[in-house]
Amino acid sequence: MHAEIGNPDGGKSIYAVIMAGGKGTRFWPRSRERMPKHLLDIVGTRTIIQETLARLSPLIPPDRTLVVTGASHAEELMRQLPEVPPDNILIEPMGRNTAPCIGLAALAVNRRSPGAVMAVLPADHLIRDEARFLHVLAAAVRVADREAALVTIGIAPTGPETGYGYLENGEPAGTVTGETVYRVRSIREKPDRPQAESFLRQGNFSWNSGMFVWQAPVILDHIARHLPDIYRALREIDVAWGTPRESDVLRDAYAAMTPISIDYGIMEKARDVLLIKGDFGWSDVGSWDALWEVSPRDAAGNAVRSGAHFVGVEARNSFVFSPKKLVALVDVEDLIVVETEDALLICRRGASQDVKKVVNLLAEGPGRAYL
Amino acid sequence: MHAEIGNPDGGKSIYAVIMAGGKGTRFWPRSRERMPKHLLDIVGTRTIIQETLARLSPLIPPDRTLVVTGASHAEELMRQLPEVPPDNILIEPMGRNTAPCIGLAALAVNRRSPGAVMAVLPADHLIRDEARFLHVLAAAVRVADREAALVTIGIAPTGPETGYGYLENGEPAGTVTGETVYRVRSIREKPDRPQAESFLRQGNFSWNSGMFVWQAPVILDHIARHLPDIYRALREIDVAWGTPRESDVLRDAYAAMTPISIDYGIMEKARDVLLIKGDFGWSDVGSWDALWEVSPRDAAGNAVRSGAHFVGVEARNSFVFSPKKLVALVDVEDLIVVETEDALLICRRGASQDVKKVVNLLAEGPGRAYL
Fold it and tell me: What is the value of ipTM here, to two decimals?
C-alpha cells in the first residue's frame, strides 16, 4: 500500500507541519506549562508527538516534517524527536492561535520547496488505525497536489459533541484512490447541544479534525485575502528570514498579529474547501475522561497504569496513573486518579473538564509551582 | 484536681501497663507490620502511644509505666518513649492475645512492688477530655486499691456497634470521688446487630474500653483459677526472671500458652467485676472511617492533612492524608485518600473495614513488601 500512496502523481514535494502549541492544562497534574500533553506518554510508551511523527513517516519522512512550537517546549521537543533536523523546528515567540502558526509554516515550506503541498497536523491527537490514516492522508495530499483547494479531513461524529467544529458536506465531488471527496458547504464552530444533535440527525456533518492539506502558496493567498494584517506580518518575517534581524522581526511581527484560528480566519470564509472523511479511530484525547475512553481496561473497567501493583476491591470503571506506587482502590467507581512527583489528583469520571478549575485556582494562589 | 486524685488513700503503689501489641492492618498503607497504629501520628503531631503516655503522666509517671510489646516494635517504641526506662519495656516473644500479656505485666508489677495496683490501658485509643479521663481513672484506682475487685472502665455507647464487647451493669454499688461504681452483671462479647440495638434500648450497657484496674495479685489469682495453664507458664517465667535462662523460658512458656483474651478468659467468668463509666470522649479509632469522624474538618467536611496545598472543587466529606504532595479533589465525596512513600489507597468512606481485604490480597501475592 505504501508504494501506491507514497508518491502522488503531481510531483510536488510534500511536507508535514505538526502544530505543537498546546498549553496543557487539561491533563494536569501530568501536563504542566513546561510539559504539555503532546510531550507526554499518556497513551503508550512513546509520547504523543513521537507517535504522531512515527505515524506520518511512511508517507512524509522526518526531514520533511516541520514542527511549530513555543520556546519553552522546543528543547524537550528536540530531545523527543531526534529524527527531525533542528532546522525543522519553528519556534513561535508567543502563541497567536493557529492562523499565524500555519502562516509561518507555509512560509517555511514555500522557501524550501516553492509550491509544495503541506499537511497540517495537530501534535496531540490519537489515531488507532494508522494504515487507514495514511491512506486518507495520501488521498488528501493527492487532491491538494492537483487542485488549488483547501482540503480538510473530517471525522464521523460518534456523539453530539459541543467542543468541536463541524464540517457540513454537500454532494460527492469525486473519488481519489477509493476515497470520496466532498465539497464543504459550511463550517460550524462549536455548536450548542441541540444544534449538534441536529447535525448528527442530518448525517452530512463531520467533526473538524484540525488536519488540513494544501499547497503552501494557496494558504498564503487565503491569508493575504482574509487576514491581511497577518499576511503583512508574515511578509516582514519572510524578508528578515536568515538575516541577523530574524528573531527581532519574528518577535515584533508576532506581537503585532491578532490571535485567530485558521478555522475562524480562513476556513469559514473560503470557497474551494474540500473534505475527505477519516474513519481511522480518531480521538483528540482532550481530557482524562477521553483518555479513559480510549485506554485498554480490565474486566472491571479499570484503566490502570501503575509502576507497582494495583489492587482493586470492588473497584470499577476508574482510571489510575501512578508510575511508582502500589495503588489500592476499595469500593469506589468512576474515579480518575493521577499521581505525579508533587501532586495527586482525584476527580470524578465525567468531571475532568473541571480539572482546569484546579489549574485556575493554583494560578491565582500560592500554587504556581504546580502549573 | 491532681492533688485530690494523685495519691489515693490506700497507699499501694500504682503502675500503668500499656498494651502495645497491635498488628496494624486497619490503617494500611500507613500502618505496616513494623509500624502499627500506636506508633503513628495519625491524630496529631505526637504518636498515639506518646499521647497515651503523656495523658497518663499526671497520675502515673513514666518510670512506673510498663509497656508490653513485640520484639519487632520494641526499638521504635523506645525511640518514641525516651521517658520510659528501658527496663519498663516488656517484650513478648510472640503475640498470645491479652491474657498472657496482662499476666506477664502483673508478674512484673508484683516483683517491683508486691500488691501494687495496675491500670491496664490499650496503647492506641484516643481520648479527648484528658482531665475527665484522669478523674475516672483515679477513681478506678482508688476502688481497686481498696477492694480485691476487677475494675473496668465502660464507655457510654453512641451506636449499636457490633465490634465491641458490652458490659451490663446492675444497680450502683457506691460512689468514689463523685464517680458512681456499678457492679457488672454480665459481659457480652461482640453482639450481632439486633442484640446491640437491644443493649442500647435497655440503657445499662457500656462498651468495654479494654481499660482495667486491679491489684496485681488479684488478677494473678484469677488467672490461676480460670486459666491454670497460663498461670503455670507465668510461674515458670517468674522463677527464671533475672537468670540466664530468662529469655529461653519466656520463649518456651509463651509458645506453650493458649492465646486467649482477658475478656473471654477472665472477665466473663469472674465475679466481683466493677464498672465506672467513662465519659471522656473515647474512641478506639479502629479504622480510617473512625479517624475521619474524630478529625477536625473544614466547612465542606474534608479532613485534610497535606504537606503541600489542598485544592477542593466540589469535594466533600473526605479524608486526605498526603504528607508531601499537593492534593486536588474534583467533584468527589466520601473518599478516604491515603498516600505514603510506596502506596496509595483510595477507599469509599464507610468501606474502610475492607482495607484488610487489600492487606490479605497483598499477603497472598507478590505484595508482601507492602505489608
Answer: 0.88
